[in-house]
Specification:
With 443 residues, this protein is α+β, with helices and mostly antiparallel strands. Helix content is 34%, strand content 19%. It has a domain at 144-179. The protein contains 14 helices and 15 strands. Strands 1, 2, 3, 4, 5, 6, 11, 12, 13, 14 and 15 form an 11-stranded mixed beta sheet that branches. Helix 3 (108-121) crosses helix 14 (404-418).
Length: 443
């Protein structure tokens, strides 16, 4: 494909040499819990275990039948090295079942699903537990290098005099922390926070503050309606050690309004920007896990099939425009499958920022962008927003970065089932200038 994008695709059974079909047979997620300035009730491993325990309990097979566990996570805690293995062992899947963790920033959960699908398509596995987890409220706060050097000097001091000299060098600057979450949400190459890249898109496509806030309000309204109508049955409740019960995404603002959001100040480009905390994804804790199976496993264990992974795409683009990643990942899938936007029944495009999703929609309608960046002869057209993120998205539900890619795949399948529809695409922008997308169909 022409244009400025490098792409890597996975085609599951539609090429000239069909691979084995890859089925999704079940899935679950935790409630997505908003971070509120201190560590939340669950570290990442506990979120994943709470999600996976209920998922495996209702299966017809013993957990040891699983061939592999693959989990996406961006910021595991110090006691969660290779968190996929921690999860597998704590779920009782078995010592002899391998597990590994993947990291592709915001799309880590989708990357885990993609890796699992490739293993099954290549006849290397029959049954894989895959998905993602993130406890962003537990993201580490780090010592700066000056403090680390001071601690090293203290450890090397042998006599009381040497220790006193080291203590005399301790200054307030040594106590200035490094906030891991803020560093992680900043691109180290171009030096821009993710919010600043969203401001770039707002400027490029002339997206107004009013449009962003209207999008954000609609996200909350749609999540409220989904909760009220019982459309989020993918959620498995959690209990903390005090017995407190969590059964809903708790970042929902039922009272959200354009007027209220209009009072918030810009966060990333003060004082002139338009991206605020209210029209951005929430910092959140959560997990989403899916069971992927081969046709052999479906037949052997008499498993229900909720969908089939048909295609996927990974693409790269300029990091300062990273929010347009879904455009660069979805477009090649549409071309490969000879689809137009209207041929996809439902869409999940992760709401990292309202400006970012609106920017993707605007890019497909922009003649210059489609021709010069995507290598198309004409615009791709208009995506019907009544079929996009119909139950809310990252702005209202939250965006635990390791888990969101798995959540949107699971949820688009649920939306397809509810509406007796066939085809869905889930996609995310990825910090660092990438995009990921996955095409699924109901079987």
């Amino acid at each position: 494909m022409a244009g400025a994008t490098n792409s890597q695709h996975r085609n599951f059974g539609t090429g000239s040499q069909p691979a084995r079909p890859v089925y999704i047979v079940d899935g679950a997620r935790t409630p997505f819990l908003k971070a509120r300035g201190k560590p939340g009730p669950f570290p990442a491993a506990e979120l994943a275990v709470g999600c996976g325990r209920q998922l495996l309990t209702r299966q017809t097979f013993d957990p040891s039948a699983i061939d592999e566990v693959i989990v996406g996570c961006v910021m595991p805690g110090p006691d969660e090295a290779n968190i996929a293995r921690v999860l597998a062992l704590r779920l009782g899947i078995g010592n002899d079942v391998p597990a590994y963790t993947v990291q592709r920033n915001c799309a880590s959960g989708m990357q885990a699903l993609d890796n699992a699908a490739m293993e099954i398509a290549a006849n290397r596995a029959h049954l894989i537990l895959a998905g993602g987890v993130e406890s962003m409220s537990h993201c580490p706060v780090l010592y700066n290098n000056e403090m680390v050097n001071w601690l090293a000097a203290l450890a090397g001091a042998k006599s009381l005099g040497q220790r006193l000299r080291v203590f005399s060098q301790l200054r307030l600057k040594h106590f200035k922390p490094i906030i891991g979450l803020l560093r992680g949400l900043t691109d180290p190459v171009v030096g821009l926070s993710m919010g600043q890249t969203a401001e770039n898109l707002a400027y490029r496509f002339n997206i107004s503050r009013q449009q962003m806030d209207e999008f954000a309000v609609r996200s909350h309204q749609r999540l409220a309606a989904a909760q009220d109508q019982g459309h989020l049955n993918e959620i498995e409740p959690l209990y903390d050690y005090s017995g407190k019960f969590y059964d809903n995404d708790d970042g929902l603002r039922r009272d959200s309004s354009v007027e209220a959001l209009g009072k918030l100040k810009p966060v990333f480009d003060r004082p002139f920007g338009a991206v605020t905390a209210g029209n951005s994804a929430q910092v959140t804790d959560g997990s989403a896990l899916l069971l992927l199976a081969s046709e052999h496993a479906v037949q052997e264990y008499k498993l229900p099939v909720i969908g089939q992974i048909k295609d996927s795409q990974w693409s790269g683009l300029e990091p300062a425009q990273m929010g347009l990643g879904p455009v660069h990942a979805i477009t090649p899938i549409l071309q490969r499958q000879q689809f137009q936007l209207k041929d996809v029944d439902y869409w999940e495009i992760n709401e990292a920022f309202a400006a970012q999703v609106l920017g993707c929609l605007a890019a497909w309608e922009d003649d210059d962008y489609c021709k010069n960046e995507l290598g198309l002869d004409t615009t791709l057209g208009t995506l019907d927003q009544q079929r996009l993120n119909v139950d809310g998205g990252g702005v209202s539900i939250g965006h635990p970065v390791g888990a969101s890619g798995a959540r949107i795949v699971l949820h688009v399948l649920d939306v397809l089932k509810r509406n007796n529809a066939k085809r869905g695409i889930a996609s995310l922008c990825i910090g660092g200038g990438q995009g990921g997308a996955m095409l699924v169909e109901r079987v």
